[in-house]
Amino acid sequence: MFNRSVAALAAVTVAAVALPGAAAAQDGVRVRWQRCPDDTVLQCAAIAVPLDHSRPGGPTIALRATKLPATDQRHKIGTLFVNNGGPGGAVADFTLVAGDLLGKRVTARYDIAGLDPRGIGGTRNCVTKGCGSEPVTCTAGRGAPAEVAKPEEPFPHTADDLRARLAYDDYLRTLCARGANPIIRHMSTADTVRDLELVRRAVGDRAFSFYGLSYGSVVGATYAALYPDRVRNMIVDGVVDPVQWSTGRGKDSQYLVTARVNSGDGAWEALTSALSECDRVGPTRCVAAGSAREKWDTIVRRAKEAPLQTPAGPVSYPLLIGTAHTAMLSAETYPILMNAIEEAYQATSNRGVRASSAWSLLKDKTRQISPGFEGVACGETDNPTDRDAAVRSAAWAGRTAPDFGPMWSWVGSACRAWPVRSAGAYQGPWQKWTSAPLLIVNNTHDPSTPISGARALHRLMPNSALLPVANYGHGAVGISCVGKAYERYLLDGALPSGSCEADTPLFP
To answer: What 3-state class would DSSP assign to 112?
Structure first.
């Protein structure tokens, strides 16, 4: 938990004056910006911070950072720190994208800065050997168990799948207990927040500005809880309930973190809502229209019996669910998903016919979980320790979120009895009155972070504002109504009222 010496450091009030160019040293932290070697419109830095924030004079680590300088430096408000989620994402690679998404009016008045979280190694825009923070590794040493391959399926379906997944999780936990590098004990969200606070002070900002997407909302909520009097403005988009993330509410604590944050419910709601919308608009706009839900149920049932045959190769039941979820991360991909559902349905209805091109497009979009995920998520959250935890969590989540509840539950299966605890982790209290109100934003049909998480954070932060967005996909940034709300909030301090809608229908 929050160490006393860190608490004392956090209590210090700093009123620094904004400085151009190189930033002054604060608390021993210095930021020296230089032109990035790859994206030359950006500035780069390797920033040394304490490995252990309870020992500020102890060993340090270097964190990769990138900055998109404000185009109107004379009227610059400050630095807007960004985080694109994960956990395990390389934030320094998000800076340029964030600038494009936030728009020219915002980037005129703010430096946009991305600081890599701990344990994440980059490969681009490197200004030091090793490119910043040493990535977390769990290495097999002398006496280590025999290697166990990581299962290819997103989650287990058969008895053999289950044995393989449990064996791999045991292997990973053993390696991390015996052969992890020191960063694994200092990877918590709160450690990253303390890094951000040191850098905020070093660059001379009087207060903290932040945009966080997905797990980035946990970063934002943690900063707001630790430093409520230092918030200039903060936007969190695609929000995770911080209580469900850290400990769980009531009896929900008996389930894995990735089950209790209700991501499975978000995915199920997004899919079933989209299938209903497909039927409503008809086959001229959505090819799966005409009992679209029944078509989905049919291909899921067939995939459970045997893999679907496609030009991209066999699609197993777990891969079907994982691929569908990936497609739902962007509203623009829903038409492709509906094409794939129709093709698969026709193929299963006419034996010998193979589903065609749409499945190839969707399989190409499937992504893997970042290897830094367990170091953060398992190390800072409470999870059950019994061997049946993942199976039990999947069954519980599957009651309200068929297929997707089990998928999300197994994302965190290694967290059961995770052997390494992040010493600096923060688990509440979360109910805080901040010096400036947070702007909490969420799509109403988000497949990863359902709007229930945004509503929960809104209740915890009593002076916050909630902006619901009638849209599909993960994250609302990029929608014109949302962009205008961000501009008014970041530039004028004005909070939106009402809600936003998507710029285009789901099925044009």
So the answer is: strand
